[in-house]
Amino acid sequence: MDWLLFLTFLAATAAAATTGAMFEPGKWYDDLDKPRWTPPGFMFPIVWTTLYLAMSYAAMRIGLIDGTAQALAFWALQIAFNTLWSPVFFGLKRMRAALIVLCFLWLSVAATTVSFWMYDPIAGMLLAPYLLWVTIAGALNASVLRRNPQFA
């Protein structure tokens, strides 16, 4: 375990988490028409904390392997899209634009997962729950957009 490398990746995820904290859902989101399967609000910080720890550990594992520059570039790309989504959805209240960001996030998480898997199956498996969560988030974003077209 390379603690410095792990903490560096964890700092990147903390930066992404900061935008989530800065652009909280608030009353606007609470008042939207949402599907019944919307996860309860208390789940989001628990899930994201777990995912960010797993993402950081997976990236640390890959960072210790020679020749993994492209895999780590995919990781950097996905954390950039991850950081962008909350300000677009909650800050600007642009659900359609947020869904586009989320599509790019999903593609970059999928690319990261596959590339990590190729070098270290454990690292790839650590990202699988993240890909699932982003899939759920995309379905939720699309459903909320469909139910609230005034916020496209």
What are its keywords?
152 residues; mainly alpha; 6 helices
Q: What does it look like?
A:
It is a single chain. This protein has 152 residues and is mostly helical. The chain is built from six helices and no strands.
Short description:
With 152 residues, the protein is mainly alpha-helical.
Largest sheet: none
Order of helices and strands: HHHHHH
Distance between the termini: 45 Å
Mean pLDDT: 95
Given the C-alpha coordinates, what overall shape results? elongated
Radius of gyration: 16 Å
Low-confidence stretches: none
Number of helices: 6
The total of beta strands comes to 0
Overall structural class, as computed from helix and strand content, comes to mainly alpha
Strand content: under 5%
Q: Helix fraction? A: over 70%
Strands, helices and their partners?
Layout: H1 3-22, H2 26-30, H3 43-63, H4 69-91, H5 95-119, H6 121-147
Helix pairs in contact: 1-3, 1-4, 3-6, 4-5, 5-6
